């Protein structure tokens, strides 16, 4: 019994659906590839009885002749062929080897072992025999068709069909896949035969020349192939710029990543890898778009960041911005020493290390079995959770004991408490923050840390110079877009646009001028101001400092920080003051801390430079067109702030509304 | 920002003396400058004269804290000491309790101290005496009222309360908004 092949409707083989008796349904057996197609029978006329008889006889006759021929040939061929092959083997050694390897490759693994062990020569002669038999078959066919010329054409075709797929063929196809190579073999052997025949007629020198020619041809062909391969490899590596209409297509993230890498490669050696009709702008525009999609930034911010970094740093910055920085704590030197604190925390199962040579109070926490923000030590005010970068501006400020110090934007009090700790609770510290709710955090932190020399206030920083002008030092950690702390707050990536940035740097400029105004330049120990932001954008850093340098009698001084990259003096269209080198920048990818900017200014007098008109012109030159209206705005507020502003009544908040 | 009235001064010092006794004098007569108590919105701040001068130039509405807050007067006129005063109470404390590390967490979550958690106690502590609570490594953790005298503590069973929690440093996190 077994499976029934449904030969009658081959095209529409249907598997019966639903569970059957057998768990696994078997498909009907496949027809052997060499067999004549059954459906062809339907097309042809059915043979008559006589015809069938004749066909049977014909086959019988053919087989008899075949057998006789084979026996004859075997005897003759072995004598003829073997020397020929030996002759050829020198020149065509590589060729035959290739063919052999091809054949061997096409066997399955299980067969591989015994095939290898067998003498490889045997493969080809056997084939040759087979091919001989095929050849003889075809010869016979021809003869027969001549003999039976009267018979119908259909018959012939059917015969041919039948003969083309002889039993021999079926047998050979049992050794799976060999039949594919047979046509090639046929051709090559035929060629060889022809060559042999022609060789007999040629002189030995001519033969040698022919051989050389053949060898040359082969080499050339090989070279060509190699060239093709190389071209292929090159074309795979070099980035193909997508067509204009396909640029806007959405492609999956892994492809975007690959494309970013490709574009970066192209841009790294633009002359070599570029496409002829594409400019650098095209590539950077595409890179911008891809980076936006891959890191989910908005275009504006990504453009700003791209302007800031060379291409090799860009990716590392963006990637570093995705990963959080290590947790760091600062020892409260008012209450404990770093060594004692480290010991106490290690006893609680916290794994930590000193932060580095540059700080004597910082510790890095690698991991912890207890919540680091709720240990008894934390509650007792022995340490403060504080980013490493936040310690830098205070170190740059270098507060002294018994000074009057202002922290203009203090919340939540990390830097301010650091200042107080360095001052050893002497002098006066004013920790100001405009936001009352955030200022509450300062209260909690200061009391926990045991800071008693402070006033916590909620002024708008821009109004402080109206009350105090006698600070020895001022720390201005200005509110910013937070592009340096994207790892903490990734919302920045999408939410900040041009107007946000403009608002930020306008406010920063105002705050900076106010901070400078509240400084006492006559102070014997001080007169210093430290400006810091957690942003990496030049608009919020160098531009603001540059603005202050023009507007007030201040100069940049060395921050005293031993590490960090220098601030920009040139950036695209901006040309900053040469002393901008003294400012320090910190990046997540180079310093493993939040992106940060620190600048230290010293005030020399209360003089406000008067040449505003000329400065206006300068500013138009130095800043973008976009900045102009903002600058004007700043100018207006400045005139209001420092000249006309009423202290009481309706007009006192005028600047805030602007 | 005003000086305490005599009446409030009396209530305040009475309360304070429960914890630090006669050491209040040391808070007022200091070698490193003049210090004083000032009242603002019912809260009492302990502040140096220098800082106070700066503060007095500011608009009181814009000052949310100056110096150290000691506590506040309740609506009924009593004084309640806040945890923020611990830095000044702890060094001058007359009666102390030390608690075992296992009981630290309990206390910092606002619970009373049981006999089982008590490590050490000052001799001659009477019942309802104000005590400052320390960890065994002498870190001040808060303050409270002794529920039992020292002699009673020795003989009581391990699960009985020996100190009522009044304030603990866990409040810095638990009640950050209510500190001032």
Question: What do you see in this structure?
Answer:
Chain B: Belongs to the NIP7 family. Chain B: Required for proper 34S pre-rRNA processing and 60S ribosome subunit assembly. Chain B: It is found in: Nucleus, Nucleolus. The complex is a heterodimer of chains A (658) and B (180). Chain A has 658 residues and is α/β, with parallel strands linked by helices. Helix content of chain A is 53%, strand content 10%. In chain B, 29% of the residues lie in helices and 31% in strands. The longest helix of chain B is centred in the N-terminal third of the chain and has 15 residues, at 6-20. Chain B is elongated and about 55 Å long. The mean pLDDT of chain B is 92.
Which helices and strands occur, and which strands form pairs?
The complex is a heterodimer of chains A (658) and B (180).
Chain A: H1 39-43, H2 49-89, H3 93-105, H4 109-117, H5 123-147, H6 153-164, H7 167-174, H8 178-201, H9 204-237, H10 253-268, H11 270-273, H12 280-295, H13 299-308, H14 311-320, E1 327-331, H15 338-347, E2 350-354, E3 362-368, H16 376-379, E4 383-385, H17 388-397, E5 404-407, H18 414-422, E6 428-432, H19 436-449, E7 454-457, E8 473-477, H20 492-495, H21 498-517, E9 528-533, H22 542-551, E10 554-557, E11 565-566, E12 570-571, E13 574-575, E14 584-586, H23 588-591, E15 596-603, H24 612-622, H25 625-644, H26 654-657
Parallel strand pairs in A: 5-6, 5-8, 6-7, 8-9
Antiparallel strand pairs in A: 1-3, 1-4, 2-3, 9-15, 10-15, 11-14, 12-13, 14-15
Chain B: H1 6-20, H2 24-28, E1 35-40, E2 43-48, H3 49-56, E3 63-66, E4 68-73, E5 79-81, H4 86-92, E6 96-99, H5 101-108, E7 113-114, E8 118-121, E9 130-135, E10 140-146, H6 150-155, E11 161-168, H7 171-174
Parallel strand pairs in B: 6-9
Antiparallel strand pairs in B: 1-2, 2-4, 4-5, 6-8, 7-11, 9-10, 10-11
């Amino acid at each position: 019994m077994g499976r029934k092949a449904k030969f009658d409707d081959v095209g529409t083989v249907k598997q019966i659906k639903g569970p059957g008796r057998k768990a696994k349904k078997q498909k009907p057996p496949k027809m052997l590839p060499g067999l004549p197609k059954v459906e062809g029978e339907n097309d042809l006329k059915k043979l008559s009885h006589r015809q069938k008889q004749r066909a049977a006889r014909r086959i019988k006759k053919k087989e008899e002749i075949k057998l006789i021929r084979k026996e004859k040939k075997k005897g003759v061929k072995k004598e003829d062929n073997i020397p020929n092959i030996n002759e050829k083997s020198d020149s065509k050694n590589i060729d035959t080897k290739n063919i052999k390897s091809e054949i061997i490759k096409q066997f399955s693994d299980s067969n591989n072992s015994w095939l290898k062990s067998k003498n490889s020569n045997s493969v080809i002669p056997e084939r040759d025999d087979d091919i001989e038999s095929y050849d003889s078959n075809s010869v016979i066919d021809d003869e027969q068709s001549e003999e039976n010329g009267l018979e119908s054409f259909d018959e012939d075709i059917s015969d041919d069909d039948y003969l083309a797929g002889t039993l021999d063929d079926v047998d050979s196809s049992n050794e799976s896949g060999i039949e594919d190579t047979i046509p090639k073999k046929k051709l090559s052997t035929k060629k060889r035969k022809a060559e042999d025949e022609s060789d007999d007629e040629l002189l030995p020198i001519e033969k040698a020349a022919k051989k050389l020619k053949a060898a040359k041809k082969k080499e050339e062909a090989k070279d060509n192939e190699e060239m093709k391969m190389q071209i292929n490899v090159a074309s795979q590596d070099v980035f193909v710029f997508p067509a204009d209409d396909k640029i806007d297509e959405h492609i999956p993230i892994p492809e975007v990543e690959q494309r970013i890498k490709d574009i970066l490669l192209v841009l790294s050696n633009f002359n070599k890898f570029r496409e002829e009709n594409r400019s650098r702008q095209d590539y950077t525009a595409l890179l911008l778009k891809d980076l936006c999609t891959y890191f989910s930034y908005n275009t504006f911010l990504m453009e700003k960041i791209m302007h800031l970094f060379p291409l090799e740093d860009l990716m590392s910055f963006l990637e570093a911005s995705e990963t959080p920085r290590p947790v760091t704590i600062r020892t409260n030197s008012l209450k404990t020493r770093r060594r004692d604190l480290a010991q106490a925390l290690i006893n609680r199962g916290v794994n930590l290390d000193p932060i580095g040579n540059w700080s004597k109070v910082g510790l890095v926490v690698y991991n912890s079995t207890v919540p680091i923000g709720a240990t008894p030590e934390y509650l007792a005010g022995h340490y403060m959770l504080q980013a490493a970068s936040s310690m830098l501006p205070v170190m740059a400020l270098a507060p002294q004991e018994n000074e009057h110090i202002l922290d203009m934007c203090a919340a939540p009090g990390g830097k301010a408490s650091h200042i107080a700790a360095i001052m050893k609770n002497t002098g006066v510290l004013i920790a100001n923050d405009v936001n009352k709710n955030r200022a509450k955090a300062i209260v909690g932190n200061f009391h926990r840390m045991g800071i008693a020399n402070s006033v916590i206030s909620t002024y708008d920083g821009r109004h402080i110079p109206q009350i105090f002008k006698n600070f020895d030092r001022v720390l201005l950690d200005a509110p910013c877009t937070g592009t340096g702390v994207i790892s903490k707050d990734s919302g920045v990536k999408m939410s900040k646009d041009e107007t946000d940035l403009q608002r930020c740097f306008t406010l920063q400029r105002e705050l900076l001028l106010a901070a400078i105004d509240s400084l006492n330049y006559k102070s014997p120990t001080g007169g210093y101001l430290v400006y810091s932001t957690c942003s990496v954008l030049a608009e919020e850093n160098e531009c603001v400092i540059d603005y202050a340098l023009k507007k007030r009698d201040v100069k940049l001084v060395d921050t005293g920080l031993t590490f960090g990259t220098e601030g920009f003096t040139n950036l695209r269209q901006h040309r900053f003051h040469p002393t901008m080198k003294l400012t320090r920048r910190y990046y997540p990818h180079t310093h493993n801390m939040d992106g940060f900017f620190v600048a230290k200014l010293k005030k020399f007098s209360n003089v406000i430079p008067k040449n505003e008109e000329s400065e206006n012109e300068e500013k138009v030159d130095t800043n973008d067109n976009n900045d102009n209206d903002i600058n004007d705005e700043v100018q207006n507020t400045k005139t209001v702030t420092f000249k006309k502003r009423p202290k009481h009544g309706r007009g006192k908040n005028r600047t805030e509304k602007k | 920002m005003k000086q305490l009235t005599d009446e409030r001064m009396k209530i305040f010092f009475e309360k304070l003396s429960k914890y630090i006794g006669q050491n209040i004098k040391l808070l007022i007569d200091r070698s490193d400058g003049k210090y004083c108590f000032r009242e603002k919105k019912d809260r009492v701040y302990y502040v140096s004269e220098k800082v106070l001068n700066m503060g007095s130039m500011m608009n009181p509405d814009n000052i949310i804290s100056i110096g150290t807050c000691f506590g506040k007067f309740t609506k009924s006129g009593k004084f309640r000491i806040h945890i923020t005063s611990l830095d000044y109470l702890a060094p001058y404390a007359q009666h102390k309790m030390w608690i075992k590390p296992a009981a630290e967490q309990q206390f910092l979550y606002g619970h009373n101290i049981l006999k089982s958690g008590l490590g050490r106690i000052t001799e001659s502590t009477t019942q309802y005496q104000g005590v400052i609570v320390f960890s065994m490594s002498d870190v001040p953790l808060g303050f409270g009222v002794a529920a039992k005298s020292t002699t009673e503590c020795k003989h009581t069973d391990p699960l009985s309360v020996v100190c009522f929690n009044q304030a603990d440093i866990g409040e810095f996190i638990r009640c950050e908004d209510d500190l001032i």
